[in-house]
Design brief:
Order of helices and strands: EEEE
Distance between the termini: 8 Å
Number of strands: 4
Helix content: under 10%
Strand order of the largest sheet: 1-2-3-4
Strand content: 35-45%
């Protein structure tokens, strides 16, 4: 499932995100959503979230 729609995202779900510094390489980081940072209902590059370990990135995949 893609992470571009906010309605699909809830705190506690496991996701793969791309961090700002890895946008060129596309390297994904796996983690659990703590906070949703994007206010709009959808975003073409993925909803921005903070993971439980403090990582901030845009969701590319919901596991």
């Amino acid at each position: 499932m893609l992470g571009s729609n906010r309605k699909n995202i809830k705190a506690g779900i496991k996701v793969k995100v791309v961090k700002k510094e890895h946008q060129r390489t596309g390297e994904l980081t796996e983690g659990v959503v703590k906070d949703i940072l994007t206010n709009s209902q959808n975003h073409p590059h993925g909803i921005k979230v903070r993971l439980t370990d403090g990582t901030v990135g845009r969701i590319k995949e919901i596991i």
